[in-house]
Design goal:
Blueprint lengths: L12 E5 L3 E5 L8 E6 L11 H22 L3 E5 L9 E7 L26 H16 L2
Antiparallel strand pairs: 1-2, 2-3, 3-5, 4-5
Helix pairs in contact: 1-2
Length: 140
């Protein structure tokens, strides 16, 4: 699919990748602790992947969640896979705090306050923690 923005990555903050998926930091000033896991091949749904690929993708999503939990101890983590606007398999991983702009609404909802974004460590620290959690999940 030539017009899919996730098939043709541009200007992404890449944190990690392997041969089938990548982890990026989403550039959102209100949510600097917002990560996205993107399947590299153009697939629409988790069910389009074979079971080993599904497990791998979910390990990556859970490792991204674990990274944010380890580094930030947020009030909540939001995990979402929609694809209504961009029908390419990807997951949103967002650390949430009661002081953020939209809480308790979704980040795409109605703002509730000016908000205070969570402080996020530098990308190399995120990547290091992510790699460790993913390795632990997939060992053995």
């Amino acid at each position: 699919m030539t017009e899919c923005p996730l098939c043709q990555p541009a200007d992404e903050t890449l944190l990690w990748q392997d041969e089938v998926c990548r982890l990026i930091r989403v550039r959102d000033p209100d949510y600097p602790a917002y990560l996205r896991v993107i399947w590299k091949a153009h697939k629409r749904e988790m069910g389009d992947l074979d079971p080993p690929a599904q497990r791998h993708l979910f390990h990556v999503v859970l490792a991204a969640e674990g990274t944010l939990r380890t580094l930030l101890q947020p009030h909540k983590i939001n995990l979402a896979s929609f694809g209504n606007v961009v029908p390419h398999l990807h997951w949103h991983i967002v650390a949430r705090d009661p002081q953020d702009r939209h809480f308790p609404e979704p980040i795409w909802g109605t703002p509730q306050r000016d908000g205070q974004p969570l402080a996020v460590p530098p990308d190399p620290r995120l990547t290091l923690i992510f790699r460790g959690i993913l390795a632990e999940m997939t060992a053995g």
